[in-house]
């Protein structure tokens, strides 16, 4: 049961990191490899705010998430918007270049050494024989609230409806008078904000280093493909499943093989359902 808690924590963080990646894929039409660096940027910003500015961890996380969301919007305006008409492949390779630039900047500013947040997981509680720390509860609760808030935003607000319309059919949405540019900015901010929260949480439970972005973009890609690139809610479920699979596998194999487990699961699923477990496109074609 203890590993189940670890898996829920891992899956919750991965879900927050992946859902924004999936939204950008749906609305912008390309895989943003620089998304992983949003996590690394936020982890360092949160560390800076918490350690050097003395902010409480929740305020540091909020500061890092908002700043990362703003950076994501700026990058979309400066880099990705001018090359949108050149196609998804150009945007994909441009995102790789952006990732290396952000990575190099982080190394230059913060250094290459691993650093730790000056926080602890707090008191531990025993529930049904399982020891759960306050920090683990906070991470799972934050992920749940964030995903619920995103669901309400997408389904109950006019901005959310516009995002769903652009994701479903951008040409039709444009004809109906929806500003695709405004929708794009909103999606980039949400993606950066959620990635920022995930990055801070990864830094809190582990360590902060410039390699954090490269390490996690692989898992984000795996979760996105596993859930289906056209399904926002599918990638959330797939992220939780992947987190549970990686941590529960520690009962049988060394923890150093956690990432291998993720890719074995991905390969098996792709052999059976090439478009992912919860692909919207596949369901539409079947209908």
TrEMBL record:
Main location, first listed in the record: membrane
Q: Which domain of life is it from?
A: Bacteria
- Record GO biological process: D-alanine transmembrane transport; L-alanine transport; L-isoleucine import across plasma membrane
Keywords linked to the UniProt accession: Amino-acid transport, Cell inner membrane, Cell membrane, Membrane, Transmembrane, Transmembrane helix, Transport
- Residues spanning the membrane: 6-24, 31-49, 55-80, 92-112, 132-154, 183-205, 217-244, 251-272
GO annotation, cellular component aspect:
plasma membrane
GO MF terms listed in the record are: L-isoleucine transmembrane transporter activity; L-leucine transmembrane transporter activity; L-phenylalanine transmembrane transporter activity; L-valine transmembrane transporter activity
Which compartment or compartments is the protein found in? Cell membrane
Q: How does it sit in the membrane?
A: Multi-pass membrane protein
InterPro entries documented for this protein: ABC_transp_permease (IPR001851), BCAA_transport_permease (IPR052157)
* Family, per entry: Belongs to the binding-protein-dependent transport system permease family. LivHM subfamily.
- PANTHER family, per the entry: BRANCHED-CHAIN AMINO ACID TRANSPORT SYSTEM PERMEASE PROTEIN LIVH, HIGH-AFFINITY BRANCHED-CHAIN AMINO ACID TRANSPORT SYSTEM PERMEASE PROTEIN LIVH
Q: Name it.
A: ABC-type branched-chain amino acid transport system, permease protein I
The protein's organism comes out as: Mycolicibacterium chitae
